[in-house]
Amino acid sequence: MPAGRPVGQVAKNFDLAETAVRDWVRQAQIDAGERDGLTSSEREELAALRRENRRLREDVDILKRATAFFATETR
Q1: H or E element in which residue 52 lies
Q2: Is residue 20 within 8 Å of residue 11, measured between CB atoms?
Q3: Which of 18, 23, 66, 74 fits 11 for a cystine, CB–CB 3.0-4.6 Å?
Q4: 36 by DSSP, 3-state: which?
Q5: CA distance 47 to 61
Q6: In the chain, where are the structural domains located?
């Protein structure tokens, strides 16, 4: 913890959950390259890619259904 203050004390001073402060410190260490893990920007990119992937899967599903519908209509 910066300035040698324990996480518990910081959490209490700001009326925060200790686990939240620990998570923020851990993420700050990752972002600073002091610890392994996904950086904040990598997490944001991963979330965006997952949203895009979900949307594209939905688009493919719609196109498959449309193809099946039109295939039966043209017979």
Answers
A1: helix 40-73
A2: yes
A3: 18
A4: coil
A5: 21
A6: 1-37, 46-75
| pLDDT at residue 33, rounded to an integer | 97
Structure tokens at 41: 């920007």
Residue-wise pLDDT for 46-74, tens only, equals: 999 999 999 999 999 999 999 999 998 87
The one-letter amino acid at 68: A
Q: What is the DSSP letter of 14?
A: T
How many residues are present in the chain? 75
Q: Is 25 exposed, middle or buried (0-12, 13-18, 19+ CB in 10 A)?
A: middle
- Phi and psi at 58, nearest 5°, equal -65, -40
Q: Which residue has the tokens 């990119």?
A: 45
Place of tokens 């925060």: 16
Rounded Cα–Cα distance for residues 75 and 71 (Å): 7
Residue 45 corresponds to which amino acid?
A: E
